[in-house]
Amino acid sequence: MAADEPQAPFRIRSLITTVYAPTLLMGIGQSAVLAFVVLQARDLGASVGVASLVFAMRGLGVMAFDVPAGLLLARIGARRSMLSAIALIGFFAAVAAASPNSLILGAAVFALGGATALWFLTRIALVSNAAPVEQRGRALSLVGGSQRIGNFAGPAIGGFVAQAVGFEGALLLQTAGAAGAFVLVFLFFRERDGRAAVAAHAPIGLGRTLREHRHSFLTAGLAMVALQVLRQGRQVVLPLWGDELGLEPAEIGLVVGFASAIDMMLFYPVGIVMDRFGRKWSAVPSMVLMGASLLLVPLTDSFETLLVVGLVSGFANGLGSGIGMTLGADLAPPASQGEFLGVWRFVSDIGTSAGPFLVAGVATVSTLGVACVATGGVGLAGAAVMAFLAPETLRRRRPPEAAPTTSTPP
Length: 410
Description:
mainly alpha, single chain
């Protein structure tokens, strides 16, 4: 190719086999784990508080390995990072399914979270390198959308599998999904695939990354903490509240699955909104409505009422499809992308870990209903931070200047 030949325009469909299809397969398994790991812990004899802590171990594992995952991505590149992450997720999901007690189950879920950190970071870096800023919201919202389609299918499938063969079968859906994703990435993803490749580079100091971007971490990052508290809190609350109401596993799976169904319908329109109007138009309404839905959970008393509140929370979550990934991609400097995204994920995953711990702690000293109210309040506070303190990161590229009207000799 000649040096002055224009680069081919980015096409979102170029990421189907390397990002979107693997994300869908992994999402089916991940959502089944999230929906039923607390019930697996209960089946092993754990209390409500301990079951919530088992769930929280996944978020703690993600948070603990976010920064090391960013450094690993910087050293070995995207393809090896992605294959390693998928293989480890499949393995530890199988360990979790075979766990004889809640202690081993918690350890397996923690390791599962650590591998998930590398999976998350690799996808964000890969898509942000491939997509220009004007299409980044849509490209990353499709990552979130692929995950959400899996979130719809996973709990519903997992609920019927759990009712037929036990909760272990629901957890093994993650291993099956990882096997399919591994095959796709192995066959179709090559580091030479143009802008989609994440090149290895010498790591830059984390201290420097924190100093140079502290404002982003303390504003947009703090808002993402609150968003993750909401998202993880609702994942714990809906199954546990369904169990409190005496619902069957299949009914609980349907509540979570239908909430994910309305969630997944919004991802592409939300991506268009982010690319046209700005990122705050996605984040703020998402947090306000999700916080309100959690405040309503203690008022439900049947499958039908819990389903309605679950649908509201799913709609709210859909409004935030891809927002954390998009903000991180917008703010990440090219020279230290892996390090920045590692810290970014660490900051936002404080909420991933804190959400279940908040539910577990408040439910232990008070009631599950009070835990719902506390979690919803955190979300409303995060919406205020996003609206008034966080920067708007949509920065369109300036159009090229018009060519001069007078010609000059070559």
